[in-house]
Amino acid sequence: MKKKLRPALSPIPISLPEELGNTTLNDLLNAEDAEFIKKGNKLSIRRVTDFGTATLEIESYDSGRKTITQSTTPQPYRKYDYIDDIIEMKKDGMKQKDIAFRLGISESYVTMLLKEAGY
Question: What digits encode the pLDDT tens for the residues 61-106?
């Protein structure tokens, strides 16, 4: 039986929005103030700047499939301005700790905002 060859995947160039100070993916990976968290088969990288929060999450599966999620959140005028995003992410099934990580705020603040919103 002949083994099927998989085509080589070339890297996809990704740049973060201009609002985050023209930060590139390479900048995010090499930034001294970037936070790296590895849990199971998921690697999360976050950098909080004056412009907002940039998050990159890479998850791999036993089948060889990988997903890459990139998100950017502009710095709000007030943290309360996140409430619509928090509710939407919660409805999409995200855990509060993951929401907090993506937005660059504490999990307890996410909990407080959800309670105030009656969610």
Answer: 889 888 888 877 777 667 778 899 999 999 999 999 999 988 888 8
**What whole-number distance in Å separates Cα of residue 102 and Cα of residue 70?**
10
In contact, 46 and 31? CB cutoff 8 Å: no
Determine how many CB atoms are found less than 10 A away from the CB of residue 58.
15
Residue 14, pLDDT above cutoff 70: no
Helix (H, G, I), strand (E, B) or coil at 60: strand
Supply 72's token pair. Answer: 């950017």
What's the rounded Cα separation, in Å, for the pair 37 and 23? 20
Q: CA geometry: angle at 17 spanning 12 and 15, to 5°? A: 20
Q: Quote the longest CA-to-CA distance of the chain.
A: 62
